[in-house]
Design goal:
By secondary structure, the chain is of the alpha+beta class. The protein is built from three helices and two strands, in the order αβαβα. 36% of the residues lie in helices and 16% in strands. A two-stranded parallel sheet has the order 1-2. 19% of the residues are buried.
């Protein structure tokens, strides 16, 4: 798997759907011989420093970006807000 680079991955720091812990990700990527991994968490960069340090320690090249979330309310959140008012 040396040539494969995971470019779409949500970590424990992702606000909507992250599951993998950064330490576990670094360990698995290293064991699979991956040279690089990208973190694309939803709406934040809280985990960027932790991700960077753990990937470097594991010998994996880190790449990180945040996937922005829309502040526009959806129909369900608009209904919830209307109940509060």
């Amino acid at each position: 798997m040396e040539d494969f680079v995971h470019l779409h991955l949500h970590t424990q720091y992702s606000l909507l759907d992250g599951a993998i812990r950064v330490a576990d990700l670094a360990d698995r990527a290293s064991k699979f011989g991956m040279r690089a991994v990208a973190m694309t968490d939803h709406g934040n960069m809280f985990g960027a420093v932790d991700f960077y340090k753990k990937m470097k320690k594991a010998g994996v090249s880190p790449s990180s970006a945040a996937r922005p979330t829309s502040p526009t309310p959806t129909a369900s959140t608009a209904r919830s807000a209307a109940r509060i008012i």
